[in-house]
Known about the structure:
The chain is mainly α and 192 residues long. The chain is 83% helix and 0% strand. Helix 3 runs antiparallel to helix 4 and helix 7 (109-122) packs across helix 8.
Amino acid sequence: AAGRALVDSVLGATKEGSPAYVDALFARAAVAESADAARKDYLRIAVDYSSSPRAEDALLRLAQMEIARGDRAAATQYLERLALEHPDGASRAQGAYWLGRVLVDEGALAPACASLAEARSRVAPADVELVNQIAYYLRPCAAMQRAADSVRADSIEKVKRAARADSIARADSIMKDEAAAKAQEQASRSND
């Protein structure tokens, strides 16, 4: 309660739209009494102050709130917006992780694996917790990759066998044609 009172006093004393005002809005959302109050402030930051450094964190928090509510579609929209509007932002690794996680839960494994791979490439090695979470959700991707590699290898082997069989059949046909031509030539000489 004291934190909320302090943040409200900062909001009252700060010029609306200033960086300090946006920071105070973000702080108020972080200590809000309810998820709805937090959502309102995060959404205000994401919409009204989308160029603020706090906007990408607000989008990430909105997505996490939607995941907690079970609204994966809304979460996906926030995470895709995060990727689009802040492609090189500090929250991109987390955003890609959460998007991958949502997609895994939806059964969309191929795009989930792509998002998780992006998260792995962006995460700071020092962020051990996020590195481990990404690795956990990447496990089905490794199995999918092994299956794809197996199918690919099997397909390549089938193509090779078919090519060999076709080459052998063509060689046999050529040899039969040549033998038939020789036989016909010999028969023609014999008749002369």
